[in-house]
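Protein modeling request. Please complete all fields; requests missing the sequence field cannot be processed.
Requester role: graduate student
Desired output: 3D structure, token encoding
Chains: 1
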Amino acid sequence: MCGFFQVIQKRKPVSREQFTAALDTLAHRGPDDHGLHFTEFQVTTNGQEIPCYAAFGHQRLSILDLSNRSHQPFVGEGHVFLYNGELYNYREIGAGLSSHGASLTTTGDTEVFMKALLQGGTGAMQRFNGMWAFSLFDTQAHSLLIARDRYGKKPLFYYLDDEILCLSSSIRAIRHYLGLKLEFRHEALLKYFMYGNMRPSATQQTHFRGIGQALPGHAYRFDCRSWQLDGQQWFDSCQAPDGTMPDLHEALQDSVAARLVSDRPVALLLSGGIDSSLLLSVLHAGKLQDRLKIFMGDTGRSDDYRYAKQCADQLGVAAETITLDYETDAFARFLKVCLHHEKAFPFSGNALAMPQMYEAIAAQGIPVVLDGTGGDEMFGGYWGRQFQAAVRTALARRDWHWIWQCFGSDDRDNAVRRQVIAALQPRWYQHLRRSLGIWSSSQLHPVLQIPFREFLQSRDPDPLVDPKLDFDTALCRDIAPGGQLGEWVWHNDRNAMMASVENRSPLLDFRLHPFVFSGYDRKYHRQWNKYELRRAFDAFQPLPTQWRSQKQGFRWDGRQFINNNRGQILELIEASECMSELLDTRKLVALAHKMPKLLRTSVGKQALCLAGIEATLMKG
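Delivered output (620 residues):
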């Protein structure tokens, strides 16, 4: 797990001072080592020789092959390679390379990754089990290959104009090198205030003007002669796999074992939910629990910690408690999250608790952490997002038995009966009701300034709002670019890397992808979501969380945070300029002085989040 920064520009040499300073902003992503490589070359364009200059920089978090043999930039065989991530099956891939005559001089995954690409091109990634973003520069052809992993676990941003290409693991490094004035795209702000989220886009556009992103599951080629970036999809999350369904228990065992591959200590975040406790169950059944350390977070405000502790106690495994204190340096912590996330995030306990969890784990010298990310998206964990599509699919198939058993469960925690009734309502009624809700909140709010014409033309970016979606398509869209999964992996990467920690997600193993298509009746049963995963406990070790109705997540008293830091919050919002085209910040501040509760509304929290990003990233 690392961070890299790269510049290719015409005519003008790369400033070493500016480049190094920009690379330093990525030091948190790789505190163990850094490397630089500079080169220059000539390209012929329209019969004219043009000098080009390139710089490659890498910040390394050493996880595999801790020696300097795997130092990056990795230069050899006419290529310069920059890589952020982990290839869990690198030994298997390396053995295949050796059998075909390749000579490997390291014991890590970096060299294996590069030489597999040189031997098999982008097709080699079909065999890769891991997470990655990389850049492979051909020093003879003067061309560049870049790509991201299937689900976008690792970030990769770019800036491209007629003279310069910047690639980076963060937006901040690009801004720093170019002296760029970051500005939110109007459309991104509009949808944020109207629909309440700023998910990573399904296109190469980001929420900032001029900053692009390589999409998950896509590869791109950049030719220095034509100065064009062309991409293609190499992994389609919506394509059902051929052949028979794999065995879930074997796939879970393999995915967990693969993510223990490390030359550094590993930990497990035990949250008290289904996903992380299933990982613990798999580890215990395979007698692997002693290969890592287990951590639990306690905020004193939810049952999650109690369930996590029950699981650890039942198995007799040692688990350390991290007590999360939201009051100490709360405002400074909030601003740090704004800086590192680089986009708006949910104003919740999870967003502010997880960085503190990773920080405490890193303080014990543990740089690798396993988590349960992906279970909700891959296995049907959302009642409010996916379940209605399941009901509509069952209705189209006249599966009344399944519909009735869900309706009859009447699970009030997850409002199952209400969700069934909503799914059976006419589509025109669902659309009208949703539109009226959005209209009233956006047009009648005293501080929002959204033109009615823009409201009419705007479309919700959430890929699951279409009431015509069948269940399989709904799940596929939620793990594809633009879906909910992209939001959570963005958060997880930033939360972990703030503390120089690599987070690994066994439930996002590519061998589990076929289970997206196993059907709604295996995902939801009576009052249970993620039914496949719940049943999987029986093959390993049943735990108290197996039939828990609802995980609560880290509870956080946002009201207390706002009340305790009210003066700083008002100053921050009042100084903000980035949202003035859609929100009257002065009016918001004036009204908040008279009505303090206004800051606790969704618009108040949205304004605070944007103002924090502006102060730390855009102006800082």
